[in-house]
Amino acid sequence: MLMHHLRVLPLLVRMHVRSKMEYRGAFWLDRLAQILSYGSVFATIGILLARFETLGGWTWPELALLFSFQLLAYSLGAAMSFVQLRELEELVRLGTYDTLLVKPFSPWAYLVFSGLNIGYAGHIILAAALMAWAVLSVDFVWSVWSASFFIAALVSATLLTGALITMIGATALIWVRSNHLFSIFFGFWELTRYPLNIFPGGIQLILITAVPLALTSSVPVGALLGKPIPILGGWAEPVSLVAGPIWVLMAIAHWRYATGKYQGAGG
Protein backbone atom coordinates (compact mmCIF):
# COMPACT_ATOMS: atom_id res chain seq x y z
CA MET A 1 0.00 0.00 0.00
CA LEU A 2 2.86 2.39 0.81
CA MET A 3 4.55 1.75 -2.54
CA HIS A 4 1.20 2.28 -4.26
CA HIS A 5 0.87 5.68 -2.59
CA LEU A 6 4.42 6.67 -3.53
CA ARG A 7 3.80 5.81 -7.18
CA VAL A 8 0.51 7.71 -7.35
CA LEU A 9 1.61 10.91 -5.55
CA PRO A 10 3.88 12.21 -8.37
CA LEU A 11 1.05 11.59 -10.84
CA LEU A 12 -1.37 13.65 -8.73
CA VAL A 13 1.14 16.49 -8.50
CA ARG A 14 1.90 16.40 -12.23
CA MET A 15 -1.79 16.51 -13.18
CA HIS A 16 -2.43 19.45 -10.87
CA VAL A 17 0.60 21.41 -12.10
CA ARG A 18 -0.45 20.91 -15.73
CA SER A 19 -3.93 22.24 -14.98
CA LYS A 20 -2.51 25.33 -13.24
CA MET A 21 0.01 26.03 -16.01
CA GLU A 22 -2.58 25.90 -18.79
CA TYR A 23 -2.56 29.71 -18.89
CA ARG A 24 1.06 30.45 -18.13
CA GLY A 25 0.92 34.18 -18.77
CA ALA A 26 -1.84 34.68 -16.23
CA PHE A 27 -0.05 32.39 -13.78
CA TRP A 28 3.20 34.39 -13.84
CA LEU A 29 1.40 37.74 -13.77
CA ASP A 30 -0.30 36.59 -10.59
CA ARG A 31 3.09 35.60 -9.14
CA LEU A 32 4.44 39.06 -10.01
CA ALA A 33 1.52 40.63 -8.19
CA GLN A 34 2.34 38.52 -5.13
CA ILE A 35 5.98 39.61 -5.22
CA LEU A 36 4.97 43.27 -5.44
CA SER A 37 2.46 42.84 -2.61
CA TYR A 38 4.91 41.28 -0.18
CA GLY A 39 7.67 43.56 -1.44
CA SER A 40 5.56 46.54 -0.37
CA VAL A 41 5.26 45.05 3.12
CA PHE A 42 9.02 44.80 3.38
CA ALA A 43 9.36 48.33 1.99
CA THR A 44 7.13 49.55 4.82
CA ILE A 45 9.48 47.94 7.33
CA GLY A 46 12.35 49.66 5.53
CA ILE A 47 10.67 53.04 5.92
CA LEU A 48 10.37 52.43 9.66
CA LEU A 49 14.03 51.51 9.88
CA ALA A 50 15.06 54.59 7.90
CA ARG A 51 13.38 56.70 10.59
CA PHE A 52 14.31 54.77 13.74
CA GLU A 53 17.46 52.85 12.58
CA THR A 54 16.60 49.74 14.63
CA LEU A 55 13.43 47.94 15.66
CA GLY A 56 13.62 46.13 18.98
CA GLY A 57 17.41 46.06 18.61
CA TRP A 58 17.26 44.53 15.11
CA THR A 59 19.01 46.24 12.20
CA TRP A 60 17.83 46.44 8.58
CA PRO A 61 19.72 43.34 7.31
CA GLU A 62 18.65 41.35 10.39
CA LEU A 63 15.00 42.23 9.79
CA ALA A 64 15.44 41.27 6.13
CA LEU A 65 16.69 37.86 7.26
CA LEU A 66 13.75 37.57 9.67
CA PHE A 67 11.18 38.55 7.03
CA SER A 68 12.61 36.23 4.37
CA PHE A 69 12.86 33.31 6.83
CA GLN A 70 9.25 33.80 7.93
CA LEU A 71 7.96 34.11 4.36
CA LEU A 72 9.92 31.14 3.02
CA ALA A 73 8.92 28.82 5.89
CA TYR A 74 5.28 29.83 5.48
CA SER A 75 5.34 29.43 1.69
CA LEU A 76 6.82 25.94 1.78
CA GLY A 77 4.50 24.78 4.55
CA ALA A 78 1.36 26.40 3.14
CA ALA A 79 1.99 25.07 -0.38
CA MET A 80 1.49 21.60 1.09
CA SER A 81 -1.54 22.46 3.18
CA PHE A 82 -3.35 25.81 3.10
CA VAL A 83 -5.60 25.83 0.03
CA GLN A 84 -6.16 22.09 0.29
CA LEU A 85 -7.22 22.18 3.96
CA ARG A 86 -9.16 25.41 3.57
CA GLU A 87 -11.34 23.67 0.96
CA LEU A 88 -11.97 20.76 3.32
CA GLU A 89 -14.77 22.71 5.01
CA GLU A 90 -16.69 22.93 1.74
CA LEU A 91 -16.09 19.24 1.00
CA VAL A 92 -17.53 18.33 4.39
CA ARG A 93 -20.47 20.72 4.11
CA LEU A 94 -21.48 19.41 0.67
CA GLY A 95 -20.83 15.78 1.57
CA THR A 96 -18.24 15.29 -1.17
CA TYR A 97 -15.57 14.41 1.39
CA ASP A 98 -17.31 11.05 1.71
CA THR A 99 -16.12 10.14 -1.79
CA LEU A 100 -12.51 10.37 -0.59
CA LEU A 101 -13.18 7.88 2.19
CA VAL A 102 -14.08 5.12 -0.28
CA LYS A 103 -10.93 5.60 -2.36
CA PRO A 104 -8.09 3.08 -1.77
CA PHE A 105 -5.94 6.04 -0.80
CA SER A 106 -5.25 8.25 2.21
CA PRO A 107 -7.74 11.17 2.17
CA TRP A 108 -5.06 13.49 3.57
CA ALA A 109 -2.48 12.49 0.96
CA TYR A 110 -5.01 12.85 -1.84
CA LEU A 111 -6.09 16.30 -0.66
CA VAL A 112 -2.54 17.59 -0.23
CA PHE A 113 -0.88 16.25 -3.36
CA SER A 114 -3.79 16.61 -5.78
CA GLY A 115 -3.95 20.29 -4.84
CA LEU A 116 -0.27 21.14 -4.35
CA ASN A 117 -0.26 24.93 -4.53
CA ILE A 118 2.43 26.04 -6.97
CA GLY A 119 0.95 29.52 -6.65
CA TYR A 120 3.38 30.11 -3.79
CA ALA A 121 6.18 30.34 -6.35
CA GLY A 122 6.05 34.15 -6.10
CA HIS A 123 6.47 34.03 -2.32
CA ILE A 124 9.38 31.62 -2.62
CA ILE A 125 11.17 33.66 -5.30
CA LEU A 126 10.94 36.86 -3.25
CA ALA A 127 11.91 35.14 0.01
CA ALA A 128 14.89 33.34 -1.54
CA ALA A 129 16.23 36.49 -3.21
CA LEU A 130 15.81 38.58 -0.07
CA MET A 131 17.36 35.85 2.08
CA ALA A 132 20.40 35.65 -0.20
CA TRP A 133 20.97 39.40 0.20
CA ALA A 134 20.37 39.31 3.96
CA VAL A 135 22.75 36.39 4.54
CA LEU A 136 25.53 38.36 2.82
CA SER A 137 24.66 41.69 4.46
CA VAL A 138 23.97 40.76 8.08
CA ASP A 139 26.74 41.42 10.58
CA PHE A 140 27.28 37.77 11.47
CA VAL A 141 30.12 35.30 10.99
CA TRP A 142 28.69 32.16 9.43
CA SER A 143 30.07 28.72 10.24
CA VAL A 144 29.18 25.13 9.41
CA TRP A 145 27.25 24.87 12.67
CA SER A 146 25.30 28.12 12.20
CA ALA A 147 24.46 27.26 8.58
CA SER A 148 23.31 23.78 9.63
CA PHE A 149 21.18 25.25 12.42
CA PHE A 150 19.67 27.77 10.00
CA ILE A 151 18.65 25.07 7.51
CA ALA A 152 17.34 22.71 10.21
CA ALA A 153 15.35 25.53 11.83
CA LEU A 154 13.86 26.42 8.44
CA VAL A 155 12.76 22.80 7.93
CA SER A 156 11.26 22.76 11.44
CA ALA A 157 9.43 26.05 10.81
CA THR A 158 8.05 24.66 7.54
CA LEU A 159 6.78 21.54 9.30
CA LEU A 160 5.24 23.63 12.07
CA THR A 161 3.40 25.83 9.58
CA GLY A 162 1.98 22.83 7.72
CA ALA A 163 1.01 21.13 10.98
CA LEU A 164 -0.92 24.15 12.30
CA ILE A 165 -2.79 24.61 9.04
CA THR A 166 -3.59 20.88 8.94
CA MET A 167 -5.00 20.99 12.47
CA ILE A 168 -7.19 23.98 11.60
CA GLY A 169 -8.49 22.34 8.44
CA ALA A 170 -9.09 18.99 10.13
CA THR A 171 -11.38 20.68 12.66
CA ALA A 172 -13.98 20.88 9.87
CA LEU A 173 -14.41 17.12 10.22
CA ILE A 174 -15.74 17.79 13.73
CA TRP A 175 -17.41 21.22 13.54
CA VAL A 176 -18.10 21.39 9.76
CA ARG A 177 -17.05 25.05 9.92
CA SER A 178 -13.38 25.77 10.57
CA ASN A 179 -12.24 28.43 8.09
CA HIS A 180 -12.87 31.22 10.59
CA LEU A 181 -9.89 29.82 12.49
CA PHE A 182 -7.65 30.74 9.56
CA SER A 183 -8.43 34.41 10.23
CA ILE A 184 -7.02 33.98 13.73
CA PHE A 185 -4.01 32.14 12.32
CA PHE A 186 -3.16 34.89 9.83
CA GLY A 187 -3.80 37.61 12.37
CA PHE A 188 -1.02 36.20 14.55
CA TRP A 189 1.11 35.25 11.53
CA GLU A 190 1.37 38.87 10.42
CA LEU A 191 2.82 39.76 13.84
CA THR A 192 5.71 37.37 13.31
CA ARG A 193 7.25 39.61 10.67
CA TYR A 194 8.61 41.62 13.58
CA PRO A 195 10.90 40.78 16.53
CA LEU A 196 9.12 39.02 19.37
CA ASN A 197 10.49 41.36 22.03
CA ILE A 198 8.53 44.40 20.77
CA PHE A 199 5.22 42.86 21.87
CA PRO A 200 3.64 42.73 25.35
CA GLY A 201 4.31 39.63 27.46
CA GLY A 202 0.86 38.15 26.87
CA ILE A 203 1.24 38.19 23.10
CA GLN A 204 4.77 36.80 23.40
CA LEU A 205 3.43 33.86 25.40
CA ILE A 206 0.65 33.16 22.87
CA LEU A 207 3.10 33.30 19.94
CA ILE A 208 5.31 30.70 21.64
CA THR A 209 2.64 28.35 23.03
CA ALA A 210 -1.01 28.42 21.88
CA VAL A 211 -0.27 29.82 18.40
CA PRO A 212 3.48 29.13 18.22
CA LEU A 213 4.18 31.08 15.05
CA ALA A 214 7.09 32.93 16.65
CA LEU A 215 8.90 29.59 16.37
CA THR A 216 8.72 30.02 12.59
CA SER A 217 10.40 33.42 12.58
CA SER A 218 11.99 35.57 15.28
CA VAL A 219 12.79 32.77 17.73
CA PRO A 220 15.05 30.71 15.41
CA VAL A 221 16.48 33.76 13.63
CA GLY A 222 17.02 35.59 16.92
CA ALA A 223 18.69 32.54 18.45
CA LEU A 224 20.99 32.33 15.42
CA LEU A 225 21.97 35.99 15.65
CA GLY A 226 22.42 35.89 19.43
CA LYS A 227 19.43 38.09 20.22
CA PRO A 228 17.75 37.80 23.65
CA ILE A 229 14.64 35.65 23.26
CA PRO A 230 11.75 36.42 25.65
CA ILE A 231 10.44 33.55 27.80
CA LEU A 232 12.60 30.86 26.15
CA GLY A 233 16.01 32.37 26.76
CA GLY A 234 18.74 29.78 26.19
CA TRP A 235 16.15 27.16 25.22
CA ALA A 236 15.34 29.02 22.00
CA GLU A 237 17.70 26.98 19.82
CA PRO A 238 16.59 23.45 20.81
CA VAL A 239 12.92 24.48 20.92
CA SER A 240 13.21 25.89 17.38
CA LEU A 241 14.53 22.56 16.13
CA VAL A 242 12.06 20.22 17.84
CA ALA A 243 8.92 22.36 17.49
CA GLY A 244 8.22 21.28 13.91
CA PRO A 245 8.46 17.50 14.46
CA ILE A 246 6.48 17.71 17.70
CA TRP A 247 3.64 19.68 16.11
CA VAL A 248 3.60 17.28 13.16
CA LEU A 249 2.97 14.43 15.59
CA MET A 250 0.22 16.50 17.21
CA ALA A 251 -1.31 17.21 13.80
CA ILE A 252 -1.31 13.50 12.96
CA ALA A 253 -3.05 12.72 16.24
CA HIS A 254 -5.58 15.53 15.68
CA TRP A 255 -6.31 14.36 12.13
CA ARG A 256 -6.98 10.82 13.35
CA TYR A 257 -9.16 12.11 16.17
CA ALA A 258 -11.14 14.37 13.80
CA THR A 259 -11.53 11.53 11.30
CA GLY A 260 -12.90 9.34 14.08
CA LYS A 261 -15.44 12.02 14.98
CA TYR A 262 -16.56 12.57 11.39
CA GLN A 263 -20.16 11.41 10.93
CA GLY A 264 -20.63 12.03 7.21
CA ALA A 265 -22.75 14.49 5.32
CA GLY A 266 -25.83 13.45 7.24
CA GLY A 267 -24.37 14.68 10.55
From TrEMBL:
Q: A Pfam family name for this chain?
A: ABC2_membrane_6
Q: What keywords are assigned to this protein?
A: Membrane, Transmembrane, Transmembrane helix
Q: Which InterPro entries match?
A: ABC-2_transporter-like
Q: Which domain of life is it from?
A: Bacteria
Transmembrane segments in this chain: where? 28-52, 64-83, 108-136, 142-175, 196-215, 235-253
Q: What is this protein called?
A: ABC transporter permease
